[in-house]
Amino acid sequence: MKIVIFIIDGLGDRPNEKGLTPLKEAKTPTMDKIAEEGICGLMNAIDIGIRPGSDTSHLAILGYDPYKVYTGRGPLEAFGLGMELKEGDVAFRCNFATVDENFKVVDRRAGRISEEEAKELEKEIDGLEIDGVKILFKSKGYRGALVLRGDVSDKVSDGDPHKEGEVPEVKALSEEGKKTAEVLNKLLKIVYEKLDKHPINIERAKRGLPKANIVLPRGGGKVPKVEKFYERYGMRGCCIAGTALIMGIGKMLGLDTYEINEKKMSVEERAKIIIDKIKKYDFTLVNVKLADEASHDGKYEEKKRIIEEIDKLLNIIFNNISKDELYFVLTSDHSSPIEVKDHSADPVPIVIWGKSVRRDDVKNFDEFSCAKGSLHWIKGEHLMRILLDLTNRNEKFGA
Amino acid sequence: MKIVIFIIDGLGDRPNEKGLTPLKEAKTPTMDKIAEEGICGLMNAIDIGIRPGSDTSHLAILGYDPYKVYTGRGPLEAFGLGMELKEGDVAFRCNFATVDENFKVVDRRAGRISEEEAKELEKEIDGLEIDGVKILFKSKGYRGALVLRGDVSDKVSDGDPHKEGEVPEVKALSEEGKKTAEVLNKLLKIVYEKLDKHPINIERAKRGLPKANIVLPRGGGKVPKVEKFYERYGMRGCCIAGTALIMGIGKMLGLDTYEINEKKMSVEERAKIIIDKIKKYDFTLVNVKLADEASHDGKYEEKKRIIEEIDKLLNIIFNNISKDELYFVLTSDHSSPIEVKDHSADPVPIVIWGKSVRRDDVKNFDEFSCAKGSLHWIKGEHLMRILLDLTNRNEKFGA
């Protein structure tokens, strides 16, 4: 029995003055059909009244307690870039940037240095060792992740001014972070010395381009102990997404990851990838991101249009997969109301579709109709348990 | 954005033989309109099946875990009397009482001694020091609060027979309470010696009135560490109530407190105070008590009549406040069924009213209709989180 969780990022909304939301108003015959044939309800990924990020909500929906396994963006970025991390490593998100001779940032993205150039500079940093701490570094264009391995702590401040200006000294946020702060401060000096005179940067300077002569670490977090998805659930799983953040979650949990570019790929192209993976894997997580982006921009009509496009995507998927051995969940990670232009704690609609669910009377997939469903109001942590049970995979507790 | 939580104490009930409750039967056009325009549900202040006091339920509804911050009536009484308490103090509720020469209580309220006389006697007790323990005392007529500060414990029995009879020796309930019990026993002797011969009592005796020659401490509790409401939520808040208990909760949380006397003030007078405070504060908690009192007395018709009067109060309030920037919650702290004449764990109806809530189909505010609402069945701890989210005040967890 296969499981698919299809997450429309930032889908839920609050009603406008007409009492409508983009989802309520959008024409979504496929979603409505899934709702009609499934069991519906509301969900808060983490808990009632908790306003989640996309990272913490996905972890919760996949059955991982974000309060235990989420330690910041750094580890997710590093996992997303495919780095092999160990429990206890401390990982940071980084930018290649340009500093002048006074260590003042003049370009936070080093003129958006190319991936090829960044790969060359990466070699100067990756593999360094400072005071017994091993340094790992991986780039993707101007972005990257820096990992410290050894006797290290994440109780340190960012080495990033977060705008143009002087690179701040990294400070320990507690006694525990003292050594790590020292290592990072030494590292930033070494990086500058190595990169500023590097042939690539000499060449860039000649062409009038900003040198990529520093990296700015931020969002440090300790790599937690995380049981891999396969170990926990015994299913071969994959994660299909368009953002590094969600891919990072997938990689952290040991899911195979596949990228879809929603802006460049047609609905048919996206559908093809998703259908292929559903056929191949026991478990498929799909995240589509654009509805959330429209929400952050406050674009009601755009969000509605994207939802209608996703409905077409779902229609193709549903017409091209075997449904005998499938439980399909359609939901969202969090609401992103147009009026808020950010995530909110309003619950999201959810439907679980599959042959043995107890169908209810809900006929439309939206925030209002699903509130009347028989699934009532669940939390993210319940979802995998319900799905394991429906697919006869979970353990009995007791006799 | 303002928040109002309006609590009708003891509102919920169990159906009588006709299947009706006072709330179901009462004519409440304003409550029904609020329900129709809002999102409805059921609530248990603490948890399903937990039968709360008004103190513990109010704490829970305000987002404070009563299992952590509720340590007995003593601290609430002391806070309610406006005493400045420190974490670790041990506070008791007290009565001035009359004992004979054998330390036998002959009047548990010392003939309801006047506030002025009590204030004079208070000076004899407040400020004493016994074995390094500082004694604080404050009265309001025959009632008062006694606070021990220093190396003290709340693991002691009451120094109150709870009826006429001999004043019991205070006993340690565990090793930890030994010293505190000794201090209290010494204190009661000192108090008797000082008060029995006090001019006020000599004078009272001459007039044939019982002497207020002892205080009887009961309900001792250690003052917990409690984050103030403003620190926790960043809102300037007030609490409007008619009972010392709820005022004590408000003061403990650092809310400004205002008294309404429901028995003496007209609906219009009460409405005026509430409207003024809603205009002035970010957050207003209102508690109206009489429906609970009628429940304790087992008076069905009286409860119904009070509910209808509260509906008029709500009507005036709703017609005289700005509703653009307001989230208004109408609910109760606990059910108080007529058949029980006390609190019960039956959930209470709740409606959250405000421009961006997802309205549901509920058209009446009562125990049965609200059970069908989209808010389903929440706990008190969820309420503030939901309200912080609706007013865009809560933090995002993750990215």
From TrEMBL, chains A, B:
Keyword presence, Repressor: no
A single GO BP: glycolytic process
Annotated Metalloenzyme domain residues: 1-389
Catalysed reactions, semicolon-separated: (2R)-2-phosphoglycerate = (2R)-3-phosphoglycerate
Pfam family, one: PhosphMutase
Extent of the signal sequence: none
Keywords: Glycolysis, Isomerase
Domain of life: Archaea
Classification via InterPro entries: Alkaline_phosphatase_core_sf, ApgAM_prokaryotes, Metalloenzyme, Pglycerate_mutase_ApgM, Pglycerate_mutase_ApgM_sf
EC number(s) from the headed UniProt entry: 5.4.2.12
Isomerase as UniProt keyword: yes
CDD domains reported in the protein's UniProt record: iPGM_like
Protein's job: Catalyzes the interconversion of 2-phosphoglycerate and 3-phosphoglycerate.
Similarity annotation: Belongs to the BPG-independent phosphoglycerate mutase family. A-PGAM subfamily.
Protein's name in the database: 2,3-bisphosphoglycerate-independent phosphoglycerate mutase
Gene source species: Methanocaldococcus infernus (strain DSM 11812 / JCM 15783 / ME)
